[in-house]
């Protein structure tokens, strides 16, 4: 009997040991899921947090931003040894396409760079994560309130801002002065469309054959910049948003038709190229550096530094400057006002959004996304890309961080940027998501293609206006549009 009892005891012990080993070892699928879902645990008897990978899709935000990706990944892992930050680079040209392809496939990155105006688009697709539950009050307090609001919809915080900038235009100082333009006065006091129209006429230069060798104004309107020209000018044409304060679609206003007529006039005057619809961001900047235009758009504060760096390459005569480029001092200028409207600059708040795929992420994975998104948008990382872009950081931690290199600035441009920034208006948070999404649909399906046709002189301003109005009535009804 005693022998039988000992055998039974040994058998039960063996069963218990096998069960324990199985529990400790787990299986490959569970281990993989834990890594991907970010169940960073820490609650199982004080064991180390489970490993997790956070993915990000990011464009070349500044000159050296993508070159620092490896260092950024390493630094993040040093801060959080159980976490891996995996960054996929994208060009500006394919950033949106890449992201939309991944979103449509149900497997987007955890973090992606977008302009804040795109938030309503992704919110309508139900792929955004609200970070409020995982962002501490201390983290939130680090960000400037105005910039922070651009990444909010209702009570949800769908991401964090990287910077706040003003989209402007910029001129070659020598050419501006040759055309008799008091650019310092324009920087501080602005100009009307009528004044601007005459100024860019004066900036046109022709050769002996009557061929234009320098235009007064060139704006990128192709590729990723296809909607920029119209939307930036509209801000100061009495159309600061797609919806007025009564939530009626505003691009059916007579101000919209007036803006379209002005856009066509500048081409018909010969102040802008007839082939404007084919000019992308790269060609527009090349035309500025090679002296083929007096004023270029859209402009950012960082263009001053880009022009300065090319000037240094010209002086060094080492062949690294843009081919056929000339020395050019970049002067920041506000866009003109149209229809007697007040100047309202286009505030650009870009940054990082948090995304989810088909599978619901764990709370721990969302927490880890919060850590990564805060890491990318604050401190030394934000300090350095803001510095390269000639922008003031939007976080206190970035303002207090050291930068890798100091750059010389034009004091007049600094004052101009401050004057434009002072007139920036806060983000509209009252526009319902469904209305915003419908407006973006009209923009994508009607406004952008019709603008390209207008620039190519294939349709008239009236025909474009009528097409947009018809689409707006279809979406919002006769009572949902502005009639003036």
Task: Please tag this protein with its features.
484 residues; alpha/beta; D-Maltodextrin-Binding Protein, domain 2; nine-stranded mixed beta sheet; two-stranded antiparallel sheet; 11 strands; 45% helix; globular; disordered N terminus; SBP; signal; Bact_solute-bd_prot1; ABC transporter substrate-binding protein; transport
CATH architecture term of the largest domain: 3-Layer(aba) Sandwich
User: Helicity, in percent?
Assistant: 40-55%
Determine the N-to-C terminus distance: 103 Å
Instruction: Supply the CATH class of the largest domain.
Output: Alpha Beta
CATH level-4 homologous superfamily of the largest domain:
Periplasmic binding protein-like II
Report the total helices.
Answer: 20
Quaternary arrangement of the chains shown?
Answer: single chain
How many beta-strand segments?
11
Q: Mean pLDDT, rounded to whole units?
A: 90
Protein name: ABC transporter substrate-binding protein
Region (Disordered): 32-51
Subcellular location: Cell envelope
Keywords: Signal, Transport
Task: Describe the overall structure.
The chain has 484 residues and is an alpha/beta fold. The protein has two domains: 49-165 and 348-422, Periplasmic binding protein-like II (D-Maltodextrin-Binding Protein, domain 2, 3-Layer(aba) Sandwich); 166-347 and 427-480, Periplasmic binding protein-like II (D-Maltodextrin-Binding Protein, domain 2). Helices cover 45% and strands 14% of the residues. It is built from 20 helices and eleven strands. The strands form two sheets. Strands 1, 2, 3, 6, 7, 8, 9, 10 and 11 form a nine-stranded mixed sheet that branches. Strand 1 (52-58), helix 3 and strand 2 (83-89) form a beta-alpha-beta unit. Helix 12 packs antiparallel against helix 20 (461-476). The radius of gyration is 27 Å and the shape is globular. It starts with a helix and ends in an 8-residue tail after the last helix. Mean pLDDT is 90; it is low at 1-45.
């Amino acid at each position: 009997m005693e022998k039988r009892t000992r055998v039974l005891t040994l058998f039960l012990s063996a069963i218990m040991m096998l069960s324990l080993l199985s529990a400790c070892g787990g299986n490959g699928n569970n281990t993989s899921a834990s890594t991907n879902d970010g169940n960073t645990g820490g609650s199982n008897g004080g064991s180390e947090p489970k490993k997790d990978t956070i993915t990000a899709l990011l464009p070349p935000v500044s000159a050296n931003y993508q070159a620092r990706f490896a260092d950024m990944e390493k630094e993040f892992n040093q801060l959080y040894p159980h976490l891996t930050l995996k960054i996929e680079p994208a060009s500006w040209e394919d950033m949106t396409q890449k992201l939309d392809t991944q979103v449509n496939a149900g497997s987007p990155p955890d973090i992606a760079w977008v302009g804040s105006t795109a938030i309503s688009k992704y919110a309508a697709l139900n792929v955004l994560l609200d970070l409020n539950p995982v962002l501490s009050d201390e983290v939130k307090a680090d960000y400037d309130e105005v910039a922070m609001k651009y990444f909010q919809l209702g009570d949800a915080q769908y991401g964090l801002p990287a910077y706040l900038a003003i989209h402007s235009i910029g001129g070659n100082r020598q050419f501006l002065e040759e055309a008799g333009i008091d650019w310092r006065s324009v920087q501080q006091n602005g100009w009307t469309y009528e004044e601007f129209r005459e100024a860019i006429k004066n900036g046109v230069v022709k050769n002996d054959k009557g061929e234009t060798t320098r235009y007064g104004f060139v704006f990128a309107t192709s590729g990723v910049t296809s909607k920029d020209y119209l939307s930036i000018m509209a801000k100061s044409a009495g159309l600061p948003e797609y919806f007025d304060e009564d939530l009626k679609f505003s691009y059916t206003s007579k101000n919209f038709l007036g803006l379209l007529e002005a856009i066509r006039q500048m081409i018909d005057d010969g102040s802008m190229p007839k082939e404007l619809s084919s000019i992308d961001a790269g060609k527009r900047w090349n035309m500025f550096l090679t002296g083929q235009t007096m004023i270029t758009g859209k402009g950012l504060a960082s263009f001053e530094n880009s022009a300065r760096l090319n000037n240094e390459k010209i002086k060094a005569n080492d062949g690294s400057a843009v081919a056929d480029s000339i020395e050019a001092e970049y002067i920041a200028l506000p866009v003109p006002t149209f229809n007697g409207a007040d100047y309202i600059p286009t505030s650009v708040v870009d940054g990082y959004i948090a995304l989810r795929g088909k599978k619901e992420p764990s709370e721990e994975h969302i927490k880890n996304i919060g850590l990564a998104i805060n890491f990318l948008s604050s401190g030394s990382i934000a300090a350095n890309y803001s510095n390269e872009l000639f922008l003031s950081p939007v976080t206190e931690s970035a303002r207090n961080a050291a930068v890798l290199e100091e750059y010389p600035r034009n004091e007049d441009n600094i004052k101009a940027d401050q004057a434009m920034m002072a007139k920036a208006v806060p983000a509209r948070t009252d526009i319902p998501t469904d209305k915003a999404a419908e407006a973006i649909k009209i923009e994508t399906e009607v406004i952008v293609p019709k603008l390209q046709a207008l620039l190519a002189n294939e349709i008239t301003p009236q025909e474009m206006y009528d097409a947009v109005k018809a689409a707006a009535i279809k979406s919002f009804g006769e009572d949902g549009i502005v009639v003036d």
